[in-house]
Amino acid sequence: MAERSGRRRGKQRDAAPARRTDYSRLRNPFPPMDVFSADEIAAMHETALRTLEELGVKVLLPEARALFRQGGARVDDSTQMVTIGREMVEAALASAPKSILARAGARNRDVLLELGVLNFQPGAGAPHATDLERGRRPGTARDFRELTRLTQAFDVLHMLPPLVEPQDVPTHLRHYFTMEAQLTESDKLPFVFARGTPQTQDSFEMLQGFRGLSDADFAAAPHCYTIINTNSPRTLDIPMAQGLIDFARARQVAIVTPFTLMGAMAPITVAGAITLSHLEALAAITLSQLAQPGAPILYGTFTSNVDMKSGSPAFGTPGHFHASLAAGQLARHIGLPWRSAAGSAANMNDVQAANENQFGLWGCLMAGASVVIHAAGWLEGGLSVSYEKLICDIEVLNMVAELCAGAQAGADEIGFDTALSTVQPGGHFFDAPQTMARYQTEFYQPVVHSYANFRTWTERGAEDTSARATGIWKSIVEAGPGITPDAARVAAMQDFIAKRSAEGGAPPES
Amino acid sequence: MAERSGRRRGKQRDAAPARRTDYSRLRNPFPPMDVFSADEIAAMHETALRTLEELGVKVLLPEARALFRQGGARVDDSTQMVTIGREMVEAALASAPKSILARAGARNRDVLLELGVLNFQPGAGAPHATDLERGRRPGTARDFRELTRLTQAFDVLHMLPPLVEPQDVPTHLRHYFTMEAQLTESDKLPFVFARGTPQTQDSFEMLQGFRGLSDADFAAAPHCYTIINTNSPRTLDIPMAQGLIDFARARQVAIVTPFTLMGAMAPITVAGAITLSHLEALAAITLSQLAQPGAPILYGTFTSNVDMKSGSPAFGTPGHFHASLAAGQLARHIGLPWRSAAGSAANMNDVQAANENQFGLWGCLMAGASVVIHAAGWLEGGLSVSYEKLICDIEVLNMVAELCAGAQAGADEIGFDTALSTVQPGGHFFDAPQTMARYQTEFYQPVVHSYANFRTWTERGAEDTSARATGIWKSIVEAGPGITPDAARVAAMQDFIAKRSAEGGAPPES
């Protein structure tokens, strides 16, 4: 919720109300775009099922193989290969919920996950942070906390991802820090890394305690989420399989996201890469539903191409866009809510970074993604998150959110009596009755874009958008946390962390 | 047409063909998006007709008023007001062609104008040019020529606009220069400013002579185009009315574009501003068809909002996007090909410039515009054209053109036999048969985007995208004209210019 007052040409016109915006619940207004025919999508789905039946996937976790075996799959423990019949996949798709309401720290932060909604996340999982004042550096606890604070500050960002890896926190204690930072900086839906059962259980316990949830409360609705990345091609590793099982049994949200680069760990074609991504997602969804029928799970994809000259990943490309569209068609084919991703391969917050991110974003929007990850701040194909890019991309997300609200064309808006007929040829509408009633509320007010003319802008120092963004993120960071958490619950959480740390914490699984 | 060779990881694989692209004929693949209901659109059209009937438009040119009077309009010469019955508008919409093929200097440069096609133009009409080497300056003949050369170099730009105003050429001779520069630098469809009948007739004569067209040839198909801007609200000035009449009688293309800023010269609402724009376009189209039934004419709009704090124009905003959508719905309502516009209010080629331009572009794409003007290079709301921004925006247009080509998902692309089944878990697809057959042709190759990793990019000097763009435009400009025009025709054109200049040229009408 933002409140802004408009002032225009020096005149005070206090009659009109200030503009208020609320981007916390969005539905996607863009007509879904297909890249493939219905027959082609059916053939991709069929090939995915055939691949699962004939070739299978490699599952490294014995418990996961046992679940697959109990469900009717053919399992070879010596090769760790699991072949999965289509009836198992179909049963999983039938039991997976089509609509999920995840509960955050406040009701207006709750996240609805179904086809047709639109939720944004900033960039996630970067090893480095960068900003114009401090330069590029390995991510720290301070960066994690500051970036979480920035995420809290903009209601167009609906879910908390782990923006950067806090590399200065030891890995066996890192999950305590990330959960504490999320819960004390934000009331939005927190993220839990699936780095093994011990860390997951610690994280659930912290979250339950902080939110004051009984076991029954926690099981009754998801209160956090994780991302499950398969290891393409066709491998499910130990922490990811544990995560699928742990989150399913706890009825917390898992978002399955094969990360498939066309021409590298996936086929070079969009159709081939998305078929691979699809079959890996189906295998993971099946495991989730075998562990707990009805467990909240999202379909997902993140497929782009490599640059064939350098082998480097590229994002915001036509291939990335088409892959998002294809994944959206498959998500609608199986009827599940799903996530897609924007992103950029640029090395700094510049024109390439803006254009790639927005191009990738439009692919997600026209693909009908329920969640768009890496929608703001992601550089270097995910190797860094930029504070300035975060602010700049939020401008675009806000503008998309404005489009979600639509526009009206009733008699008041067409305005024959209040505008069109009141101004003669050669006149202007500055003082038309319609203008007077709306001038403070009609237009989107930007965060970082400037409409100063060239002379004014030059006199102000000719700052580029990145430089202006620095001032914006600094003022938010310096203002302190955007929430005031209950002191007793914070203290209890800190006691828990101290106790568990003294006990040795919980190293990640690998 | 571009030819590029791919090389990857040092290996030579000469078997695969080089990537060829052809962006010269595009059809819009994006599902059209509606912002208003069919009833609301009908109400806007009805209000436009009512306004023309009851309030009318001010027409400054006596000849135009005479044409309106002959056609049945009520004309008051003392007030210059013309009220136009709906039957006149309906007759004009019935006689205006729904599909126009404009002939350029080569058949692959011809421009088809109808609903469903997609043509791009760079930014037009800026008083200033800017680049990183020479800074911002009033536009010159050299800038006009260089920017025309850059427009010729990229086949995703389909029509030549007057990118900058060559302010160092006297106004009574400027049209000779702009036509000569366009014809000697490019074989794409040239633009003629409608600055009065004498300049228009000179321009037509130069074009006919250079292209070797008889009067009958010239009348048989359009060979150039102009833009007609109404003076909002509800005024048609002398040069614009002359342009409508001259182009109609010569059967050359006129694109009617009311330039309506919401909250200034147009109503503050999208619905009101587009209703005003619509009625002005209908009046101009009616005049065109009164002058010559069947004359090639395009519907058009360029509507954005002002910033209510400063009064400055803003582009690439949610209001701009919605206005494009509404105009597209009205264009489909009346069945005419139409133009829309992207653009940016930023003062330099930075993140804001990229994000605004692309945001505005997506509005045009989802609105189904047949022609998108200001699609590349436009800064400061049209006060300057940036050489670097031109290159950077072309990257986005190329990627959109790649989307127009779609993607396949046949058995070869899904690739069960040539990719999916050939790679085991833990493997990679670098050498899969499908990859080997396609690695040089599958992916878009960027113009200015870089996929270098952070270390390589830093070692190369950490150039931002704008700096790389400088090298690209310079190499194109330095390479000389992209065409080799017939020397005899150039000489004849220069003789014509010398003769007409000696006779005093042709001052613009005002």
Automatic annotation (TrEMBL), chains A, B:
Ranges of biased composition (kind: Basic residues): 1-11
Domain of life (superkingdom): Bacteria
Top-rank EC class of the record's enzyme: transferase
Keyword tags: Methyltransferase, Transferase
Molecular function terms, GO-annotated: methyltransferase activity
Biological process, per Gene Ontology: methanogenesis; methylation
Bias kind Basic and acidic residues: ranges: 12-25
Transmembrane region(s): none
One matching Pfam family: MTTB
UniProt similarity note: Belongs to the trimethylamine methyltransferase family.
Protein known as: Methyltransferase
Source organism (scientific name): Aliishimia ponticola
